[in-house]
Amino acid sequence: MTFRLQTLGRLRLVDNGGREVAFPEKGLLILCHLIVDGHSEQSRNDIAKLLWDEIVPSQAFVNLRKTVSRISARQEELGCHFLSFSPSSVRLDASRLKSDVDAIGREALAAFASTNGLDPTAFPSLARLESELVALATGGMEQYMMMMEQIQQ
Hints:
By secondary structure, the protein is of the alpha+beta class. It has five helices and seven strands, in the order βββαβααβββαα. A four-stranded mixed beta sheet has the order 3-2-1-7. Strands 4-6-5 form a three-stranded antiparallel beta sheet. The radius of gyration is 16 Å and the shape is globular.
């Protein structure tokens, strides 16, 4: 079965029929972060900071271990492993998951390449859009507004 991460609108995992598939919320955030930032692998330390920056690191690692357990169990139920975990890192298998971010990138490439031959990554606005999307997905509106204030300064 093919799955797709929907990042625009409400962050969710959907199957090939467009039906929402239950998946741990923090798992969705990890998927979004890895896809949008273009990482296939990230340290567990960085993921813990991303998800629980406001608490002490030891508690963040406890939370991450619990989250990894829930994600692993759910992936086993689905019969599809998007994320794999080692003692030191979290790895994305992008071949098992599509996302609307990928579709947007392809559409942007087609639109810009056909008109001016430029790769859309040459435009800082595309990188900014990706950063804004990650900020919204991981920190909500408050973090997004802080980021926008920094950009305007």
